[in-house]
Amino acid sequence: MKALLAIPLLLFTISLSAQKLTTRDHILRTASTGLILMDWSMTMDGLAKGLPESNPLLGKHPSRGYANTLIGSTILLNVFAVPHLHADDLRAFVWLAVIAVELDAVRANHSAGLSLSLRF
Prior knowledge:
elongated, single chain, 120 residues, mainly alpha, 4 helices, 0% strand
């Protein structure tokens, strides 16, 4: 239930934080945030199954609370901090880097048999 409430709230906050962003910025921010959400969901599935976490920032067996705090903070940074980078190319680079990292994480999660989970 929390996840169902989080998605519209996230979309609403994205629209509120829109500054003088280009269409490219909106597309990259939305794509990178969506991938972080997918990775987060799959991380929760892995934790529920007792699997070790591969993200070194989280550690091998983080608590759900710690993982939620860290990944939630990452989403906030992605949505609110990156848009404040003044250089257009730097913003695009950061979001493209997030997309690349998260695509690899989601691919690895899927290969490990993890699925999207609504248990945060």
